[in-house]
Amino acid sequence: MGSSIRLFLLCCLVQIYITAATTESGDATALRSLADEWKNLPPGWLRGDPCRDGWVGIECTGSRITSITLPNMNLVGELSGDISILSELQQLDLSYNHDLTGPLPMSIGNLKKLTNLILVSCGFTGPIPYTIGSLPLLKFLSLNSNGFTGNIPPSIGNLPSLYWLDLADNLLEGPIPVSNGSTPGLDMLTHTKHFHFGKNKLSGQIPSKLFSSNMSLIHVLFESNRFSGTLPPTLGLVQTLEVIRLDNNSLSGELPSNLNNLTSVHELFLSNNRLTGPLPNLTGMSTLNTLYLSNNTFDSSDFPSWLQSLSSLTVLMMENTKLQGPVPATFFNLQNLQTVVLKRNQLNGTLVIGPSISNQLQIIDLQTNAISDFNGPETYNYEVVLVGNPVCEETGKTDTYCKPPPLTSLYSTPLKNCPPNPCRSGQILSPTCRCAHPYTGTLQFRSTTFLDTGNSNPYETLEQSLNKFFQSHQLPVETVSLSDPRMDASQYLLLNLGVFPYGQDSFNRSAISMLGYVFSNQTFKPPPKYFGPYVFKGDKYEYFSDDHGNSKNPSLAIKIGLAVGASVLFLLLMLAGFFVYLQKKKADRATKRSNPFAHWDSKKSSGSIPQLKGARCFSFEELKKYTNNFSEAYDIGSGGYGKVYRGTLPTGELIAIKRAQQGSMQGGLEFKTEIELLSRVHHKNVVSLLGFCFDRDEQILIYEYVANGSLADSLSGKSGIKLDWPRRLKVVLGSARGLAYLHELANPPIIHRDVKSSNILLDERLNAKVADFGLSKLMGDSEKGHVTTQVKGTMGYLDPEYYMTQQLTEKSDVYSFGVVMLEMITAKKPIEHGKYVVREVMRLMDKTKSLYNLQEILDPTIGWDSNAFNGLEKYVDLALSCVEESRAERPTMGEVVKEIENIMQTAGLNPNAESASSSSTYEDSSKGSAHPYRDKA
Q1: Is 185 helix (H, G, I), strand (E, B) or coil?
Q2: Catalytic residue among 27, 754, 763, 935
Q3: How far apart are CA 678 and CA 680, in angstroms?
Q4: Minimal CA–CA distance to 551: which of 540, 561, 564?
Q5: Cα–Cα distance measured from residue 74 to residue 95, given in angstroms and rounded to the nearest whole number
Q6: For residue 605, what are the CA distances in angstroms to 230, 602, 612, 622?
Q7: Residue 795 three-state SS
Q8: Which has the closest alpha carbon to 272: 307, 325, 310, 226?
């Protein structure tokens, strides 16, 4: 009896729970109406109950829907006016659904409890409905990066709780509305912190009434519009302001003198306007660190003395502002100064840089002025650019400061000793060496407190901040990566962001929704020391782990299923006799997919799969025998890919056996493709693949044994091998010949894509051999001079043009080889202690002096003597031609080979002679070497 009562009570409780969790009928109807307008719905939608069954992106309080957050769901369609039925809705976020189009419905004004309306980077068009001004609780209004047209609705001024107003990057036009009698305007938004209106077509004069002393604004971002007229002095009344962007407009007249009162402003952008009159005195802006005044029509003036009072100044941009006279030497004593750009002025006299300058200084650019002389320290670690000044044009000087500034170095999150290219198609290697489908997009910073995008510290800080944020909020994120920092035409800093999933290779829809919301709702705050306001533009995500098909009409699907089921039953009766045959064929196809080598006869030179040239198939038992059952005594290296063993064939030939560990193995077809590529390469300056093993779930590559390690080991002293100048020339020539073979004689041509000193090996006679083809690409007949592909390679060696365009050519290898050439004479890593070897050579080089004045950076172990090394200058010229910014200006590898041969002949060396009789002739050879086939960073 007691059991029956308990069972009854349990059933009642379950029924109460189900009833309480069931979505209110009106909300459920409205949600289904929205779904009828959309394609690519999340799985589970239109089945069951939205609140009870936990539809993705739907949150409920009791039976009422209170939140719809569906960023980056790849939704297609329009927003139905039935959204207004959801009267308890507090949050609507549909950001990053680029194919959500059409106008916003007027009925959106009926959502009286809405606090967040976030539609970032969608495809909405038409005017912003004036009914938005009827949402009394609205705090966040983010409509940026759409296609909205027409005027800013004055009714937005009726939103008393509004904190964030972002209408940037649309097609809005007309003036900024302010109140007039019974008509509202944006001047009424006294509690709003953010006015983000940049990149529109707004015009007219910025209204004086817009600003007042009782406002709380911290960001006024009006850049890249069509504003004209004078800047209202009321702007100087808003004491809370921190960032002001008015650049790229048509503002005219004098700047208000009371801007000096804005003591909290740390970034002021006024460039590219028509401002006139005297330069403003900004002495009171004690926290100002970024000042842009370039390209205006101010009155001619001496260098402003008040600039020296801005103790926080980091970036000064005053190009084409009619400055004249000398630049005070004491200005460079500002301790936070990083970037000074004063191009196209009338500055004159001697540029004096004393010993007490900022230790953060990166560049002083005074191109096209009237500087007659330069008085600075003999050596310095910042850039001075005086091109177009008399000191360079009239004196014939060729000092480093008389050359254009070198390329800014690039940044990408470093990988932690990852194996080369182990990922399946479509996946990306995370910084922790896991293959996955990351959530990607572009971070667009509307202001930054540093300019040099080659400075890695701010990006490392941003990475740490992102990782810490995701961990503290318990989001399913393992790590993040940042890459390709660049400035666009609007002086926004752009950064590619990748967010990698934790514990799996892709995110589900709920996780993507949460990640998108983190950025669209500005939950994540970047480090304020470096980064200002930002917007995130999420890329389309196509790898949802919980997508298994999605029918928009379940009832129709059931009907179709019943019909198909009846047909299948009839067909099965007819096809029963073929069942065994079909199963056999299916098993055979599965075998071919899992083992592409299954039907390859290793005894026949023309085997069908794979198409190999000179490489044989080894059995696992053979390799166990050659390595004494893979004994530790035969272990000569290890890394993320697996272990490398030394083996001995029955003929006595030494071999290197690279055995993949389970976590790093490729699919069978990818492994076959790599072997086919390696097996077609036969050249004395390219490491030879002798064979492979695809047996017992093993993936093993067998190479020729190369005795003396990598070039990087020799240059660093790790191998104990010391290379004199003739031997270095010989190694460079051999490497160039190997690459020229890959580019010009291999059929089809091969682009190595990871040329670096650790991928050039030295045999027992110090002959160079190009190795490691894990990232290589074939140049097929269909490509028109380039392959468009994801950027892969090693930082410091990467071709900048390939990095920016993703168009890979043979000239990308040429650039990397040029870096290796400079590494060869300096023994320095491409990027060492924050210095890029290409930039350092260009900075020091003086062609009027012996050894091009490079003694400071040349490897001292060689014992350089200008009389003994008369080929060095031509060698440096060749290396620098290889690292030209434009790939069209670089030589081919065949041309590089010919030039190195000429250099050797000029130096009295035979380009075709062996480097040494044996490895025993090398100094300190007893120290041994780390084996070249291990995985390298």
Answers
A1: coil
A2: 754
A3: 6
A4: 561
A5: 10
A6: 82, 7, 8, 20
A7: coil
A8: 226
Give DSSP secondary structure letters for 658-721. Answer: EEE-GGGPPPHHHHHHHHHHHHT---TTBPPEEEEE--TT--EEEEE--TT-BHHHHHHTSS--
- 820: part of which helix (H) or strand (E)? helix 810-826
Q: In the prediction, which pLDDT does 782 show?
A: 42
Round to the nearest angstrom and report the end-to-end CA distance of the chain: 73
Domain end: 704, 734, 763, which one?
A: 704
CA distance 737 to 901: 10
Residues 6 or more apart whose CB falls under 8 angstroms from that of 524 comprise 466, 469, 518
Which residues of the chain have a pLDDT value below 70? 1-21, 406-410, 421, 449-456, 548-614, 637-641, 662-670, 673-674, 774, 780-788, 790, 864-870, 914-937
CB 164 within 8 Å of CB 143? no
Could you tell me if residue 886 is inside a domain?
yes
The verdict on 682 and 805 lying in the same domain is: no
The model's pLDDT over 494-514, given as tens digits with 9 standing for 90+, comes to 899 999 998 888 999 888 989
Widest CA span of the chain, in angstroms?
A: 110
Give, for 323, the enclosing helix (H) or strand (E). Answer: strand 323-325
CA distance 349 to 328: 10
The number of residues making up the chain comes to 937
Burial (CB count <10 Å: 0-12, 13-18, 19+), residue 891? middle
Supply the pLDDT for residue 932. Answer: 41
Identity of the residue numbered 82: D
Q: What pLDDT, on the 0 to 100 scale, is given for residue 44?
A: 82
Count other C-beta atoms under 10 Å from residue 279's C-beta: 23
Which pair of tokens denotes residue 106? 């007027």
Q: Residue 197 carries which DSSP code?
A: -
The pLDDT value recorded for residue 573 is 54
Please report which helix (H) or strand (E) contains residue 375, including its range: strand 370-375
* Nearest partner of 280 among 353, 223, 230, judged by Cα: 230
Token output for 920: 């025993």
Residue 343 belongs to some domain of the structure: yes
867 and 740 both lie in a single domain: yes
Element (H, E) at 346: strand 346-352
Burial of residue 486, with CB atoms counted within 10 A of its CB: 0-12 exposed, 13-18 middle, 19 or more buried: middle
State how far the alpha carbon of 593 is from the alpha carbons of 589, 672, 842, in Å.
6, 11, 53
In the three-class reduction of DSSP (H, G, I as helix; E, B as strand; rest coil), residue 201 is classed as strand
Q: Are residues 684 and 753 in the same domain?
A: no
Tell whether 769 is in a known binding site.
no
| Cα 657 to chain centroid, rounded | 35
Q: What three-state secondary structure class fits 798?
A: coil
Number of domains in the chain: 6
Beta bridge partners of 428: 436
| Known active-site residue 169 | no
> Is the Cβ–Cβ distance between 156 and 180 less than 8 Å?
no
Q: Residue 698, exposed/middle/buried by CB under 10 A (0-12, 13-18, 19+)?
A: middle
pLDDT tens per residue, range 512-543: 989 999 999 888 888 877 787 888 999 999 88
Does 858 share its domain with 895? yes
Which residue has tokens 């997508």?
Answer: 547
Read off the CATH number of the domain in which 781 is found: 1.10.510.10
Rounded Cα distance between 641 and 72, Å, is 34
Distances (CA, A) of 707 to 711, 931, 933: 12, 8, 10
Phi, psi of 828 (to 5 degrees): -110, 145
Domain assignment present for 606: no
CA Rg value for the chain: 34
SS3 649: coil
The predicted structure's pLDDT at residue 669: 60
Whole-structure pTM value: 0.59
Q: Which CATH number does the domain housing residue 678 bear?
A: 3.30.200.20
Look at residue 548 and tell me if it is in a domain: no
Show the domain range for 449. Answer: 428-538
